[in-house]
Amino acid sequence: MVVCYAQIVIRLFGVDSLKEKRSIVRSLVADLKKRFEVSAIESARQDSKDYACIGLSFVTLNEKDCEEKMDNIEKYVEQFHVVEDITYDFHHFS
Predict the structure, then answer these.
(1) Where are the domains of the chain?
(2) Nearest-CA neighbor of 54 among 36, 28, 75?
(3) What's the DSSP call for residue 27?
(4) Is 17's pLDDT higher than 80?
């Protein structure tokens, strides 16, 4: 079993208020949870209108599945937002 955890930093353009940003982030987090069956939260930069930081985690059977899922998540997020940085790692459990 492989546990994957990731952090995605997204650059937001045209956001005028934190309320608007939170609406965007809530929608993205809900979409990620539903579409990819992951745990996801806004993990940092809550007070910034220009950036959103999404933390997520999930479990797969092997590294290949983990990398494929992360690639799909990255492509999905990039369809709607500018991804500044994405980091992920995984840990094996026997």
Answers:
(1) 2-92
(2) 28
(3) H
(4) yes
Look up the CATH architecture of domain 2-92.
2-Layer Sandwich (3.30)
Q: Are 56 and 38 in contact (CB under 8 A)?
A: yes
Question: Is pLDDT above 90 for 32?
Answer: yes
Cβ-Cβ contacts under 8 Å for 57 (sequence gap 6 or more) = 3, 4, 5, 6, 38, 39
**Burial class of residue 73 in the structure, from the number of CB atoms within 10 Å of its CB (0-12 exposed, 13-18 middle, 19+ buried):** buried
First to last CA, the chain: 7
What integer pLDDT is reported at residue 43 of this predicted model?
Answer: 87
Residue pLDDT, tens place only, 41-65: 998 888 888 888 999 999 998 889 9
